[in-house]
Amino acid sequence: MQSDLAQPGTSLYLQTLALVRAFAGHCEARANDDSSEAPIAWFLLDSWLDNPTAEALEVDFPEHADARVAVPDPFFEGRENSAPCLVPVPRTMQCEVPDSLAEAKAQHWLTSQLAMAWFAARQRMVPQPFCGLLLSRVSGHATAAHLLRLGFQMRRKEEAARLFRYHDPRVMQRVWNHLSTAQQTAWMGPIDTWWSLVQPWEPWEPDELIDGIPPVIAVPAWQKIVRPHTASAEYAMCSSHLLDDRQWSWADATPIAGKVWQSLAADGVDVALQPDGPTMNRMLAQGIAVGLTGKNLEVFVKESWQARTGSAPLNWDQPELRENLAAILQRMEADPQASFGGLLRESVLERITP
Fold first, then answer.
1. How far, in Å, CA of 316 to CA of 300, rounded?
2. Domain for residue 250, yes or no?
3. CB contact at 8 A, 119 and 212
4. For residue 268, is it left (φ>0), alpha (ψ between -120 and 50) or beta?
5. What single-letter DSSP state applies at residue 354?
């Protein structure tokens, strides 16, 4: 059982306890910083409904649960409990070294929640109820208003706004390094630091896919994003066209890579014979550079890896392959219903048919 692996005294418990203490130490340092007003700490949850962390908060910290603020997204009108929400982090959780029984219990509570959130993250393709911890310089309602603008994004001027899952750490962690400093500043807005569990970006162990138990070498860690320093103390309003097409593709990359690794693990392929994280990045980058998205990008990555030489994926820059790829892309542009996989198979058949 996963819960048995997160009991006090286990390796996982001690690892997540170290993460909790790092966050609490940061909160204490900010609270004692006389140069600025202490920011407010918030849980960022995927939703309030059907969320184990929310259920635990209602039982153990009801006053904080009642003080939650849902992001006022019109998409969730009439069902606010399904929207992303902010919940104030109890002060008792913001102490690196507990000085009372209440603080010790609160630290244990957060450690247990973080351990279970890590198990959910390791499953990769399932919802992430616990999205992160934020420190914001404004109220919950003002922070939620910023997140509303961040979530109201359009891919192109002619398209309607789409639901952008900014709060999902799998989205943020894939796209973050592809943003400019100005874009990162706009994303953060009044948020000083954004803490989320590092999401898996590596081969998928076949055994972990089956039983959900992470390998012993897997260790939970924080991704801590700090708002870039700017000359102005004010934060810029977030644009509804924050990302360009290439960045949108990176924001959507996690499920594509996840499906590739999942299919390999489901076939029993050992991790040593799966692409590692940097190799996956290179294959995705090459596909994104030629304009592939969604299922077409997934097939491109799969085919690139299956036709590899040793540990090096297929090199599409070889003259013959470059010409074939250009021809496929040209046909896809002429026929929006055509798929990369179908046209690639046709191309292969044309080459081998006498």
1. 10
2. no
3. yes
4. left
5. -
Residues β-bridged to residue 230: none
Evaluate whether residue 156 is within a structural domain: yes
Q: What is the pLDDT of residues 276-326, one digit of tens each?
A: 999 999 999 999 999 999 999 999 999 999 988 888 899 898 888 888 999
Query: For 236-259, how does the pLDDT look when each residue is reduced to its tens digit (9 = 90+)?
Result: 567 888 999 999 999 999 999 999
Q: Could you tell me the strand order of the sheet in which 69-70 lies?
A: 69-70, 85-88, 40-45, 130-136, 191-197, 222-226
Instruction: Locate 47 and state its tokens.
Output: 């939703």
The verdict on 130 and 260 lying in the same domain is no
Of 242, 267, 297, which residue sits at a domain end?
242
Is the Cβ–Cβ distance between 247 and 179 less than 8 Å?
yes
Retrieve residue 180's tokens.
């400019």
DSSP helix/strand/coil, 8: coil
pTM of the model: 0.91
Q: How far apart are CA 90 and CA 94, in angstroms?
A: 7
Distance CA 221, CA 169 (A): 13
Q: Which helix (H) or strand (E) holds 1?
A: none
Pull the structure tokens for residue 265.
Answer: 């693990």
Residues 101 and 32 in one domain: yes
Which helix (H) or strand (E) segment holds residue 102: the answer is: helix 101-122
Residue 335 structural domain: 256-352
